[in-house]
């Protein structure tokens, strides 16, 4: 399938234009954007700075920044601790608790490295609907 063709997914068949407008695809893109990033890579001059967000790893709360890239390293804003992602699980629910979107992704690598599980949650508005976005990230944590 090329960029201009249709694709069949667990959510049905869609065109690239439909995927860009679909709340599920927006949530997937938001999920990956929220969790993935490379704070160590400086953004180009004039680019927006990464938004920090809260995660809890091993019972400790962190505020981390993220930038571009699904599997990029995230960095704690208060220390030199950084997090190398291995897997993510995302769920978005509406105000009534109905699951709007759920996804799990994992990459190969980091097999012999100790991992921890981090959790996160955020509530936001999307197309006039209040959504709660929550999930876990399996990461290799480095000082």
List keywords for this structure.
single chain; mainly beta; 6-stranded antiparallel barrel; 2 helices; 46% strand; disordered N terminus
- Overall pLDDT, averaged? 74
Query: What kind of oligomer do you see?
Result: single chain
Category by helix and strand content: mainly beta
Global morphology? globular
Query: Which stretches are low in confidence, meaning pLDDT under 50 for 5 or more residues running?
Result: 1-22, 34-43
Please tell me the total number of domains: 1
Alpha-carbon Rg, integer: 16 Å
What level of helicity do the residues show? 10-25%
The largest pleated sheet is described as: 6 strands, antiparallel, barrel
Distance separating the two termini: 42 Å
Give the strand tally. Answer: 9
Biggest sheet strand order reads 3-4-5-6-9-8
* Count, helices: 2
The string of secondary-structure elements, in order, is EEHHEEEEEEE
Beta-strand content estimate? over 45%
């Amino acid at each position: 399938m090329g960029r201009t063709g249709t694709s069949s997914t667990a959510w049905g068949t869609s065109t690239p234009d439909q995927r860009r407008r679909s709340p599920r695809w927006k949530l997937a893109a938001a999920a990956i954007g929220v969790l993935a990033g490379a704070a160590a890579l400086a953004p180009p001059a004039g680019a927006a700075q990464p938004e920090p967000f809260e995660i809890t790893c091993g019972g400790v709360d962190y505020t981390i920044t993220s930038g571009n890239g699904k599997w990029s390293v995230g960095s704690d804003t208060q220390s030199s601790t950084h997090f190398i992602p291995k897997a993510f699980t995302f769920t978005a629910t509406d105000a009534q608790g109905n699951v709007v979107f759920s996804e799990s992704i994992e990459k190969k690598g980091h097999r012999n490295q100790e991992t921890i599980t981090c959790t996160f949650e955020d509530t936001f508005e999307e197309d006039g609907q209040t959504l709660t976005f929550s999930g876990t990230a399996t990461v290799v944590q480095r000082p």
